[in-house]
Every structure is written in structure tokens, then in C-alpha cells.
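User: I'm preparing a small set of examples for a lab meeting where we compare how different chains pack in three dimensions. I only have the primary sequence for this one, and I'd like the structure in C-alpha cell form so I can line it up with the others. Please keep the answer compact; I'll paste it straight into my notes.
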Amino acid sequence: MNYQFQWQIVWDNLPFLLQGVWLTLGVTAVSIAVAIVLGLGIGLMRISKRHLLRRISIAYIEIFRNTPALVQLIWVYYCLPVLTGVNLGPVSSCMVALSVNGAAYLAEISRAGIQAVPSGQAEAARSIGMSYPLAMRKIILPQAVRHMIPPFVNEAVSLLKYSSLVSVLGVADLTYQAQTLSTSTFRPIEI
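Assistant: Understood. Below is the C-alpha cell output for the 191-residue chain.
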């Protein structure tokens, strides 16, 4: 075994790799932010008393949780423009795809967190005259957040890992930058 490690290649190309890190973190942060908002809305639809809203949310959750993230990335980037005429750039497509994927998981996390709050809390809020939206905002959601934090962190880590898939679409994230550097330096182990 005569392989000689050359770590200097990493240090010499650190700015190039850091560009990929910042893009990866940016895509992940935007995807998480959008997924939180969308996931909470879908989670609330999932526990709604309205049959149509429940069915729509169940369909959304089942479709996006049961298809691979890579397939969703490809569909948003290649098929969405054909089907709708909406032409997004590669980075925007990745953010949209990862957001809708994460929202499906966060919807179930939100639903479970809300349902983990004892029903007596909602009944007490109604007994003092609070409306459902006010009780949800002031009483139920603050307690539900406590239950939602651990699975939320898990989903955030999953979205960070899924962000490596964006290199398939030519987005210059960390994975893409590392692959490019590996092929030009012939030092894949160090990179």
C-alpha cells in the first residue's frame, strides 16, 4: 500500500469547497423554513373535522412520504415546467422539492404533537370562551411544540442529508463541488 495522503489539496481548495457548504446550508435552511409552515398547515388539515380537508392532507402526505426524494427532485425540475409552464432554476427546484418532501413529514409530526396534548386542555379553553383558532395558538400549539422538537430535529437532519441529492441536477452544493474537485485532482479520499 503506497498511497500517500496529500491533505494540502483540501486546504488549497477550501474556498471552492466552502462555496458548496454555503449552498448546501442555504438550500437546507430555506427548505426547512418552508416545510415548517407548509407542514403545520397540512398537519392542521389532517386533524380537521372537514372530511375533504382531511382527505386532501392524507393524499398529500401519502404521495410525498412514499416517493423517493430523488424522484421528487427530478419531477420538480424536469416535469413541472412541461406540465405547468412554471420554469424554475435548478436551485429553486431543489428548494421546492425538498420543501414539499419535508412538509409531508412535518405534517405528521405536527399532527402527532397536537394530538399528544391532553384533550382537557382544549376543553378548558372552550369552557372559558376561546375560539378554536385562539385556543390552538395560545394553548395547544405551545404545548405541542415540546413534543415536536425531537422528531423535528430528526427531519431537519434528514433534509440536510437529502440536500446532497441536488448535485444530480447540477447544483453546485458540497457534494457537487467535492466530485468536481476529486475528478480534477485525482484525490477522492482526501476530498
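A couple of notes for your slides: The mean pLDDT is 93. The two ends are 19 Å apart (CA to CA).

User: Perfect, thanks.
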